[in-house]
Amino acid sequence: MTEQVKKKLFVKTYDELVQVIFNFLFYRCGNRTLAEDYTQEVFIKYWDKMANVHTGKEKSYLFKIAKNIIINQIAHKQVVMKFEQNYNAHATPDSPEFILEMKEFNIKLQNAIGGLTEGEREVFLMNRIDGYKYREIAELLEISQKAVEKRMHKALIKLRKVVEKI
Questions:
Q1: Burial of 50 (0-12, 13-18, 19+ CB in 10 A)
Q2: pTM of the model
Q3: Is 87-166 in the same CATH topology as 1-66?
Q4: Among 140, 113, 144, 108, CA closest to 126
C-alpha cells in the first residue's frame, strides 16, 4: 500500500467513524476530554496497523481498539482501588506517606500493565474485569482456549513479579 493510498483510506475511515468511536468512548468513560484523548489514541493505533486490517473490517477493528482502551482504564482504576482498600489504615489520604506510596504504586502498576504483551493484557482484562470465561474469550478472540490459558498464565506471572496482591 503506497503512502498516498494509505492516507486516503485513513482520511475516509476517520471521517466516517470518528464521531461513532468518540460517542462509544464517551458513553463508556463519561468524560469528554478523556473520550477525545482515547479517540485520538484509537486512530493512532489504527494508522500504525492499517496494513494488517482487511478492507471492510475497519469499523470492527476500531471498536476493538476502543474497547481495549476502556478495559485498560477500568483495570487500572480497579487495581488502584484495591490497593487503597488494602493500604495501611493508619495512613490518611493527605499524609505524605500515603501520597508517596500511591505515586510509587501507580508507577509500578503502569509499568506492569505496559510490560504485558497486547494478547496477555487483552486476555487478563477480559477475564478479570469483564468476567469472561476462558472459553468465551477464546471464541471472541478466535483463538484456542489453551492459548487463552497460556496468555493468562504469563500475564499473571509478569504482574505478580511487579505488583503484589494482584
A1: middle
A2: 0.51
A3: no
A4: 140
Packing angle, helices 96-114 and 58-86, rounded to 10: 150
User: Do 136 and 54 meet the contact criterion of CB atoms below 8 Å apart?
Assistant: no
Which residue's entry shows cell 477493528?
61
List, for residues 131-165, the tens digit of each pLDDT value.
889 998 888 788 999 999 999 999 888 888 877 65
Among the listed residues 37, 120, 42, 29, the one whose alpha carbon sits nearest the alpha carbon of residue 73: 29
Model confidence at 115, in pLDDT bands (50, 70, 90)? confident
What is the rounded radius of gyration, in angstroms, for the C-alpha atoms of the chain? 18
| Alpha carbon separation from 73 to 76, 79, 80, 95, 135 (Å, rounded) | 5, 10, 11, 26, 24
CATH number of 87-166: 1.10.10.10
State how far the Cα of 52 lies from the Cα of 33, in Å rounded to an integer: 29
Tell me the domain boundaries of the chain.
Answer: 1-66, 87-166
The CATH class, in words, for 1-66 is mainly alpha
